[in-house]
Amino acid sequence: MVTDANRHTGGEAESKSGDLVEVHCDYISADEPIKRRFPSSTILGEVKEWARGEFVPNPPSDKAYYLSDDKSRHRFTADEEKQTLEQLGYKHEAKLRLNEEQAAGW
Length: 106
Known about the structure:
Helices cover 26% and strands 29% of the residues. Residues 1-18 have low confidence and may be disordered. It has helices at 2-17, 44-55; strands at residues 20-27, 34-39, 63-69, 93-102. By secondary structure, it is an alpha+beta fold. Strands 2-1-4-3 form a 4-stranded mixed β-sheet. It has one domain: Ubiquitin-like (UB roll) (Roll).
């Protein structure tokens, strides 16, 4: 599993420096946002997969999911999803929103 590998490869350095980002994520049909601490070296795409798995454990095949910044409403691109939380400017906290749209070709 990718997240386990990342925890073991970068986890020791992150835990020593205390470089954790508290991620709050909301979703349109959720009663409350979810939150979890991630090392700042976590790739945004991994955060998206965590949020999608929490909110939509069995996603319909006709939906695509993306993250946006809850404050600025900026929609993260596929290239940005390859960047770490730190590279995207999140130092201590990230307030994000999981969004869905009709998948291409449907």
